[in-house]
Write a structure and sequence with these properties.
The chain has 35 helices and 17 strands. The protein folds into 5 domains: about 5-205, Rossmann fold (3-Layer(aba) Sandwich); about 210-390, Rossmann fold (3-Layer(aba) Sandwich); about 410-515, Arc Repressor Mutant, subunit A, CATH 1.10.10.10; about 535-610, DNA polymerase, domain 1, CATH 1.10.150.80; about 630-730, Arc Repressor Mutant, subunit A (Orthogonal Bundle). Strands 3-4-2-5-6-1-7 form a 7-stranded parallel sheet, sandwiched between helices. It is of the alpha/beta class. It is about 50% helix and about 10% strand.
Length: about 725
């Protein structure tokens, strides 16, 4: 062992000013200095970068650091230059450099000044760069974010697959691979692909005892829940993760108009804005960053106090990495995820159309996310088990720091009910999705089930003593526990797995947990959730009176009740007691048109009710909505007036067809007419339209699923949505 190896402690003090190493750092550094291939699995905040920075500064030659993250490279180069008198001690080599800058990088390397060269894998594949690197002394290769090599990693990048070949061409040197998240499967992929099967492996614990994990139901009031939470943690730094750029912009603007210092961050912003917003967060000029996963990679802000997932991520690796940005200083770190199964179904839909192998991997990763959200076990134990680490949920560090442990769910034996579900799927030859299976159990005979003669099945109506929500939970938990799988080719069709077939032959205990009453969890006792999502409305009595009034008004106007106000709007009225037109307009699903057309009797009733019952209206009644949404609304109305094809309108605003139809639905449901007859003429003839209108006029709800089943697939989902828009526009507005 060289003197340099023994002096790692001294060099740490000299270069970085630290007097001691953290965790496995010293072992890792000694391994690299001794010329070994080294594999480091260390959670975010564990000090991974020091593991290659210090040996690079100590060894002869330049260490090549491969990273996919420009923000991380820039941060680390700036930081290293701060520790050294030589500005050229660290450089980035990528396509954004001018020729002069590139020449300077190469000159510093030739002189031996540069100890770390940060490159993206794409830059490393360029022939001119390979030729140059062959001509200078290289100390070792550091592969950061090494999980990108594996298709099972949460951020797979095909260009990472070629790294071994490129390193061989430059001249093989010791390799250090580093990742913050690796399941046993991903770990094996990384070692195999980089040709480092004999590497020394250093695996730190994935446990972050200071992080508090909680999953809340995602309701219509999620924006208000988030605003209330942030206001309870006034002035603290936080990150909110969303899956789409559009949602990021909307949430950031909603927070801004509600007096919260927030900025958006996503790949669609220009580079200048991204840097500006990132710096504002680091410099504490803004409290909250609303971001897609493009944000946070390598951002070393130690005092992020909360991480909120507005949408569940696509994998547990993503979730772990994103929540890992909270409490990196060991202080408070609150991690809250808002969960609705329909969000998972959207993610499943995105997988459709990808190669089957990708779909299979994507579906399995998603099912792990569902399992995490719905589990009743200690969440920390669940996460650590996923990464191949055992955890004592009674005495382990941070064992009590999650919602399930603080508020244990009631569990009950559901062996016979799980068996009934599996028998029903088997009896129908594994041809149906979840909803028809539940309808059979409940004894609901839809058109499709009539054709199938489902009422002649032994299982028909066998589950009528429970409701739809109960059976949905049984089916989902059977999927999560591996008894059932969803057919990838026939999206969503339920099939028995091998474990499911074994369970049918020999049923064993199948424990199901009742959901929390999330209203009474944690310190957010006064958060009110939407009635439809299983929580409680603030005022059941008022809700019931409003429901009766809706029926009465609907009868007078000759329209279905849902065409007056939808249940979600009534829910919100029962939460917030709007007693003038201005307040009513701020209820979701009630725009100016609807407030004027139907609102008068509702606000009179609410005002009287508030007086008679001596009710104090909530202070934070209105979550102010985003002003600029009206610009999109006006554009859509003007464009449909001009009879522009809907595809062109969507394209002009960067929306998918589905997103555009959703926007039109919002406009129409809020009481404004939109004329799309010109677009529908080519798709649905008059007789068909009359048939659909008659259905919606008589239907108890405007459910698309029910309409689809009623017409037995004669119309696709988009046609039914468009026809429903025409119906609501003409009948309700």
């Amino acid at each position: 062992m060289s003197t340099k190896t023994l002096n790692a402690q001294e060099e740490l003090k000299k270069f970085f000013g630290f007097s001691q190493f953290k965790g496995n750092q010293e072992g890792v550094i000694k391994s690299i200095l001794s010329g070994n291939d080294t594999f480091v699995i260390m959670p975010t905040g564990g000090g991974k970068s020091l593991c290659y920075q210090l040996p690079a500064l100590m060894k002869e030659g330049t260490a090549i650091v491969v990273s996919p993250l420009i923000a991380l490279m820039k941060n680390q180069v700036d930081s290293l230059r701060g520790f050294s008198e030589e500005n050229g001690v660290a450089h980035v080599l990528n396509s954004s450099l001018t020729k002069t800058q590139t020449d300077q990088v190469k000159a510093d390397m030739v002189k031996g000044v540069t100890k770390l060269l940060y490159v993206a894998p794409e830059s490393l594949t360029k022939e001119e760069n390979i030729e140059f690197l062959q001509s200078v002394p290289i100390s070792f290769f550091a592969i950061d974010e090494a999980h990108c090599i594996s298709e099972w990693g949460h951020d797979f990048r095909p260009e990472y697959r070629n790294l071994r070949n490129i390193m061989d061409r430059i001249g093989r040197k010791p390799v250090i691979a580093l990742t913050a998240t690796a399941t046993p499967k991903v770990q094996s992929d990384i070692q195999k692909n980089l040709g480092m099967d004999n590497a020394q492996v250093f695996k730190a614990s994935f446990n972050r005892p200071n992080l508090y994990y909680e999953v809340r139901p995602k309701t219509k009031h999620v924006d208000r829940d988030i605003i209330r939470f942030i206001k309870q943690h006034q002035g603290k730094s936080g990150i909110i993760y969303c899956l789409s750029r559009k949602r990021v912009e909307e949430i950031a603007q909603t927070l801004q108009v509600n007096g919260i210092k927030a900025l958006p961050y996503h790949a669609g912003l220009d580079a200048g804005s991204r840097v500006k917003h990132q710096d504002a967060f680091l410099m504490e000029e803004t409290d909250v960053i609303v971001a897609t996963i493009a944000f946070g990679m390598g951002i070393d802000k130690p005092d992020v106090r909360f991480v909120i997932h507005y949408d569940m991520p696509k994998s547990m690796e993503s979730y772990y990495q994103e929540t890992g940005r909270a409490g990196r200083d060991g202080g408070e770190g609150i991690c809250i995820a808002f969960y609705a199964y329909k969000d998972i179904e959207k993610l499943e839909k995105f997988l459709h159309g990808k190669p089957v192998s990708e779909q299979e991997i994507g579906m399995q990763l998603l099912q792990e996310v569902v399992a995490y959200a719905e589990t009743s076990m200690n969440r920390r134990k669940f996460i650590l088990h996923y990464f191949g680490e055992e955890f004592d949920e009674v005495n382990g560090p941070g064992a009590e720091n999650d919602d399930n442990t603080r508020h244990p769910k009631e569990r009950f034996e559901a062996k016979e009910d799980a068996r009934l579900v599996l028998q029903t799927i088997q009896a129908t030859n594994e041809r149906f999705k979840m909803e028809p299976i539940i309808n059979i159990l409940l004894g609901k005979l839809t058109t499709m089930l009539k054709q199938y003669k489902a009422d002649q099945l032994e299982q028909f109506m066998k589950g009528a003593d429970h409701d739809e929500k109960y059976w949905t939970a049984i089916v989902r938990q059977a999927v999560v526990s591996g008894l059932l799988k969803k057919d990838i080719e026939k999206y969503g069709v339920l099939k028995l797995s091998e474990e499911g077939e074994a369970f049918l032959k020999n049923p064993v205990s199948f424990m199901v947990a009742k959901d929390h009453d999330y209203d009474s969890a944690g310190d957010d006792d006064d958060v009110i959730v939407d009635n439809k999502s299983g929580g409680a409305v603030l005022d059941d009595k008022l809700y019931s009176i409003l429901k009766d009034l809706t029926r009465k008004v609907a009868k007078q106007k000759g329209v279905p009740p849902y065409a007056v106000f939808q249940e979600s709007s009534l829910n919100e009225m029962a939460l917030n007691y709007p007693s003038n037109l201005e307040e009513l307009k701020n209820i979701s699903g009630v725009g100016e048109g609807k407030a004027r057309k139907f609102g008068k009797p509702f606000i009179e009733l609410i005002e009287k009710y508030v007086d008679e019952n001596d009710i104090t209206k909530p202070d934070d009644f209105v979550v102010k909505s985003i002003v600029n949404k009206s610009g999109l609304k006006v554009y859509i109305i003007q464009s449909t007036d001009r009879k522009l094809p809907l595809e062109d309108i969507a394209s002009a605003k960067g929306l998918s067809m589905e997103e555009l139809i959703t926007e039109v639905e919002h406009i129409v449901n809020s009481g404004t007419k939109v004329n799309i007859d010109y677009y529908l003429e080519d798709r649905i003839d008059e007789d068909q339209m009359e048939e659909i209108f008659d259905y919606f006029m008589e239907a108890e709800s405007d459910s698309l699923q029910e309409a689809y089943e009623e017409f037995d697939g004669e119309y696709d989902e988009e046609e039914l949505r468009l026809a429903r828009i025409k119906f609501m526009s003409e009948v309700a507005n």
